[in-house]
Amino acid sequence: MDLEYTAIRNFVNINDLQYLWDKGVRSEHFFDNSIREVYNFSLDYLIKSEFKSAPTENLLKMKFESYFNNNGWPSEEYLVHIITSDLLEKYRRANVQK
Questions:
Q1: Phi, psi (5° rounding) for residue 8?
Q2: pLDDT in tens, 22-45
Q3: Rounded to whole angstroms, how far apart are CA atoms 87 and 70?
Q4: Looking at residue 98, what is its pLDDT?
Q5: Cβ atoms < 10 Å from Cβ of 13
Q6: In this structure, what is the dihedral angle of CA atoms 61, 65, 71, 76, given to the nearest 10 degrees?
Q7: Would you tell me how many other CB atoms lie within 10 Å of the CB of residue 8?
Q8: Of 17, 12, 20, nearest in space to 63 by CA
Q9: pLDDT tens track for 52-89
Q10: Phi, psi of 73, deg, nearest 5
Q11: For residue 13, what are the contacts with CB-CB under 8 A and spacing of at least 6?
């Protein structure tokens, strides 16, 4: 499982996206630049909507067409709590090793 790639499914759910933000997940926690861009776009969308809506799957696929043409939409779905803790832990480990 590619943790970062799988997290994309949570970017289209307002509650999940807000949970990621509230728990401290920031763009620098994503090592893949493409996923970082998708996350930043999703957060901008959430903020501009005054935390009332998240981007749709179709919007992300249209905005990042080349990425999703190459990678597809993640088929696995995991709880946002697991994704969040695993992303933060992966980031901490990488920085401790540096």
A1: -55, -35
A2: 999 999 999 999 999 999 999 999
A3: 23
A4: 65
A5: 15
A6: 0
A7: 23
A8: 12
A9: 999 999 999 999 999 999 999 999 999 999 999 999 99
A10: -90, 135
A11: 54, 80
